From TrEMBL:
EC number: 2.7.1.130
Record field: catalytic activity: a lipid A disaccharide + ATP = a lipid IVA + ADP + H(+)
Transport found in the keyword field: no
Family label: Belongs to the LpxK family.
Pathway(s) per entry: Glycolipid biosynthesis; lipid IV(A) biosynthesis; lipid IV(A) from (3R)-3-hydroxytetradecanoyl-[acyl-carrier-protein] and UDP-N-acetyl-alpha-D-glucosamine: step 6/6
Pfam families tied to this protein: LpxK (PF02606)
Role according to the record: Transfers the gamma-phosphate of ATP to the 4'-position of a tetraacyldisaccharide 1-phosphate intermediate (termed DS-1-P) to form tetraacyldisaccharide 1,4'-bis-phosphate (lipid IVA).
Keyword vocabulary terms for this entry: ATP-binding, Kinase, Lipid A biosynthesis, Lipid biosynthesis, Lipid metabolism, Membrane, Nucleotide-binding, Transferase, Transmembrane, Transmembrane helix
Transmembrane parts of this sequence: 6-27
Gene from which this protein is expressed: lpxK
Taxonomic source organism: Pasteurella canis
Entries under HAMAP family matching the protein: LpxK
Protein name: Tetraacyldisaccharide 4'-kinase
Signal peptide (residue range): none
Upper taxonomic lineage: Bacteria, Pseudomonadati, Pseudomonadota, Gammaproteobacteria, Pasteurellales
Length: 321
């Protein structure tokens, strides 16, 4: 919502509802903390990679980065997710690189494609973990999202913040974008800022694109070889993708922002010039392969997260000898 990122009279009118939201959230978390509401402890460590605010913050690239780093340390990793946007008739559902994104959700399928690790989705995280562990002995499990899912106990919490939007107007839903108060950041293990440092940041992440991949042929082209293109994005912050392309001196003749987790159909692309390349995010591409055109390309990004704090954080997961 645009008014989440400004001081608007709309936010002022919604403040009473935000107070009610805070009260319900606070009481609920307290009940879990006191053990009045039951929570599930997995037999292996669980790492939450989540958001404090609504909308895309770059959480999925962090999950992929973390899986790859832990694999390099010799650990066997599994991923669970709620599977937002999935339309499966049964849960929990094991997601593979070949799973239809309509059934498995775009982000879980993308994670499975990029990491080749077992991924399981379900609104019930306990069921997702139990099915995952039936399939493979995992040393630990990463939960894609779920910071506020207190029915699942966790060992490590990571929060990702979009540096461009920050915490918006700092208000809770529905007056602002926050699911919990900003003070919650003081209780997590790591705060990663996507783009640049902020007052809350432990580590800064850069999302680096290097090439584009043709959806039909699989051909790779360096991004600097593109001049004038069209571009679409169905992510939490589409302007971030468009700004990234412009920052590479690529001229965007046509752009369209779609809703996050948008379901695509071929007729939605009719207005774009078929004589010039159409660039999209990798998350969008997983939903477009079945009707892709020869001029469609997706742009994978790699999370670059470096520094001493990263090394000390990852050192916590070295396998015991």
């Amino acid at each position: 919502m645009p008014f989440w990122y400004s001081h608007s009279w709309v936010s002022f009118l919604l403040l009473p509802f935000s107070c009610l939201f805070w009260l319900i959230s606070y009481v609920r978390r307290l009940l879990f903390k006191k053990g009045i509401l039951s929570s599930y402890r997995a037999p292996v460590p669980v790492i939450i990679v989540g958001n404090l605010s609504v909308g895309g913050n770059g959480k999925t690239p962090v999950v992929i980065w973390l899986v790859q780093k832990l694999q390099q340390q010799g650990l066997t990793v599994g991923v669970i997710s709620r599977g937002y946007g999935s339309q499966s008739k049964t849960y929990p559902l094991l997601v593979t690189p070949q799973t239809d994104p309509l059934l498995g959700g775009d982000e879980p399928v993308l994670i499975a494609k990029r990491t080749q690790v077992p991924v399981c989705i379900s609104p019930n995280r306990q069921q997702a973990i139990e099915l995952l562990l039936q399939q493979q002995d995992c040393d630990l499990i990463i939960s894609d999202d779920g910071l506020q899912h207190y029915k699942l106990q966790r060992d490590i919490e990571i929060v990702v913040i979009d540096a461009q939007r920050g915490l918006g107007n700092g208000l809770l839903l529905p007056a602002g974008p926050l699911r919990e108060r900003a003070s919650r950041l003081q209780q997590v293990d790591l705060v990663i800022s996507n783009g640049e440092a902020s007052q809350y940041t432990d580590i800064v992440m850069r999302l680096e694109p290097h090439y584009a991949v043709n959806l039909v042929t699989g051909e790779k082209r360096v991004l600097t070889s593109f001049n004038a293109v069209s571009a679409i994005a169905g992510i939490g912050n589409p302007q971030r993708f468009f700004s990234m392309l412009r920052g590479l001196n690529i001229q965007l003749n046509q752009t369209q922002a779609f809703q996050d987790h948008q379901t695509f159909e071929i007729n939605q692309f009719a207005k774009f010039d078929h004589n010039q390349p159409l660039l999209m995010t990798e998350k969008d591409a997983v939903k477009c392969f079945s009707f892709a055109q020869p001029n469609w390309w997706y742009v994978p990004v790699e999370a670059v997260i470096e520094g001493e704090k990263v090394r000390s954080f990852l050192a916590r997961f070295h396998p015991k000898k």
